[in-house]
Amino acid sequence: MVRTAREWRHRTGEITLDRTRVMGILNVTPDSFSDGGRYFDPETALRRGLEMVDQGADVVDIGGESTRPGSDPVSAEEEWRRIRPVIQGLAAKADIPLSVDTMKPEVAAHAIDSGVSIVNDVSGMRDEAMVHLVAARRVGVVAMHMLGNPKTMQDHPTYADVVEEVRAFLAERIRSLEAAGVSSDAIAIDPGVGFGKAVAHNLALLRRLDRLVDLGHPVVVGVSRKSFIGRFGGGEAGDRLAGSLAAATLAVARGAQIVRVHDVAETVRAMRVADALALEEKL
Ligand code: HH2
Q: What's the CATH number for 7-278?
């Protein structure tokens, strides 16, 4: 198995990648695809964030704008208003790094000022202002591939070769981030499962994850409860845990080092077993 990255540096330290790391999802939105509205109330969101820490999350990823297919964007003001109390509360109480899931440099800047250590940008840091921000503030980065934007990305996504096109996009984003001064070991990459991808595209990317792993950066994979899992009998989003664990396990076997998930407790347990079976260092 190929495992190239040893650590992922962020603003306040580094995450060692000697085992699979779990990034817990906290969507403070009324409309996210699987948990929209559930944590829209800041107190409930804060409680859920702390619960994920107790359950063994290595990072909590906080988002205030849904990027589900067809979703409408929200303003930076509204996005920050939603996540501010949750980020401030978690920064004061949680002892693990926090990440903010945003495409907007203004929101990322506020979040960093409030204690966030990682910026997760589903648009792959295509905005120059975002690149400069993450370079100047020395945060960890997740650069994800998305075709187009959430509103239209699932309208007939087309690729000549999805694996090579996603690889080329991420390689180019890595070069731009490094050129702007972002430390190479702070950059994680993500194929963007479901972001402008038909089922066959998602499967191809997950099967050929080695093509992304060999770029030498930690690979983040977000398969949790996604619609392609429902295609294999998983049903609605809340019924996709078993399929999500199967997909995460195989992604890890193929070199993913960070999994972004809703079901933290179950995933932490599953990944312990996956790591025991897959990690070469343990043999
Ligand atoms: N998926 C979603 C959002 N952010 N970030 C990364 N790095 N990778 C992903 O696969 C990813 C992501 C979509 O899932 P979710 O946050 O549950 O839903 P929504 O966008 O509807 O809030």
A: 3.20.20.20
